Amino acid sequence: MSIFGEIEELEEKGMWQSALLQLNRQLDISPSKRTAIRLLFVCWYALIEWGCLEFNEEVESEIFETQLKAVTGFLLKNYPNDPEVSFYLGYMSSLSAWFFSEKVEEWEEKARQMLSYAKEEEPNNAIYQMVYFGNIEADDKKYAYWCKQAKPLVEKLYSGKGEFNLYFRHVLTR
To answer: pTM of the predicted model, to two decimals?
Structure first.
């Protein structure tokens, strides 16, 4: 079973800290963008859903906060010009900048810049376009257009199991 299959099982069992620790070990052993993005999601999702998630192990939010900042630093250092990294970091920090830094206004602006960068670098990526136009609330026609274009891509890209796919399939199907 792949590392991501194991993470999906841990998420389903409510073992979020175990998922975090396993992803962190994997990132140390074999650093990759995919592992780092998944670790970013596990940390961020656990924090934003803290009161709603079922935890079947003893956990403390500090480990998720610390790891969120560490993996954010890793992604920014190693993938500074990567549209996919900019998209996920921009999306997550646009919704909850306070988890990324005490300088909330700076991170809100950074989130807008990252979403704009992803949109500019991949102008044919309907998901990046949709999220960008939804975030800036500027042009309803463009946003509606990109929502329609993104729907089949969202369904395909996030068709797998696990909270990562379930979350993005749910929030990006508009």
So the answer is: 0.94
